[in-house]
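PT: before anyone asks, these are the final sequences, not the draft ones from last week. 448 residues across everything. Please model them as a single complex and drop the result in this thread when it's through.
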Amino acid sequence: MMCVMDSAAPRRARSAEAKQERERAILAAARTLGGERSVREVTLTDIAAAVGMHKSAMLRYFETREQIFLALTAEGWRDWATAVGEWSADRTVATPEAVAAMLARTLVARPFFCDLLAQAPMNLERNVSLDVAYRFKMAVFAEVASVATVLRERLGLAEAEAVDVIATATGMAGALWQMAAPGTSLRELYESRPELAHAVIDVEPRLTRILTALLVGYQAGAVR
Amino acid sequence: MMCVMDSAAPRRARSAEAKQERERAILAAARTLGGERSVREVTLTDIAAAVGMHKSAMLRYFETREQIFLALTAEGWRDWATAVGEWSADRTVATPEAVAAMLARTLVARPFFCDLLAQAPMNLERNVSLDVAYRFKMAVFAEVASVATVLRERLGLAEAEAVDVIATATGMAGALWQMAAPGTSLRELYESRPELAHAVIDVEPRLTRILTALLVGYQAGAVR
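LR: through. Structure below.
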């Protein structure tokens, strides 16, 4: 009995480690491909080819293409919340303008995350099991709570106001990023025709303006 | 010559009329199906079956499934801008709270339009010819200008501020509607677990709060 456990435990550990390594490789491949083109253009076959696995073998690690990108969305939330926390750690007070500019800057600096933010509720969450969706939501809530703490401490917002600001920052980062359509023939069209000038969206200043007005409005007690 | 023209003109007219009638029938079928389930679940085959046409015949009227839904998105913009205009015609002044509530109410009353608003930049505009995308953009700009006039006249917003408010109202209506996931098993999950209470999104009050703060912020001269 003792002997069996002794030999089985390291084997399980090795196997768990190998599994994690495979998962990491799959996520890394999807991250690279998603950064190169838009998420909607990356198929499961593309990811399998990049990681050198057969598609059917990859499905032992992730149940769908969408689960892979949902895991990267959760990773994006963690990474973004960390950047917001680091910004906050460097200061004791902040203005609505400074917070708005920071939120916009940190989001726009993560174009893959912006793409995922719009994809998640429409496509990703709907093509995974409820268990995966549940764990994703819980992971996101933890990051929302962390960013909300920064907004409450630095600007004195109420909890519900902070959550609204985060929903607007991430929702509009996703929406504006899709509308901006960077690197596409649509974007070329917008830039080539003066009458389409309004369609040429520069996400960071646009998002900064919207979030500044929103934060000023909440600070003015607009919705108490 | 005279004789040829006499007989050809009505034939062309009949043919153009028949074509328009077919187009109207296709749009009506897509509108009904899109209202029954989410837009992403409606295929070209579904629309063809509903209208009693062969898929290949339908492609003589619309180049892709996405062109059909893009036409319905433009129709949604016209319909929504008309509702905003009617609201405005009934009053001479308005508060940010009243305008925010009206914008949220008129958008949420159009769930199919909310669904399309999120689909358009991510999926629809990207799967049509540049010519179709161009005409769609020009049609939307006309409606944005009409709603912007209401916001400028009723709240004294600058043009760029009005355009930002419209982008936020429609962008967040689309994003929140997707997040709310009405009628899905995801929504049932959110409602069944107390720890997921934050995921249960009631779009109209949420959007009203966000737009109120935004309008108060712009009126306070947040971004001048």
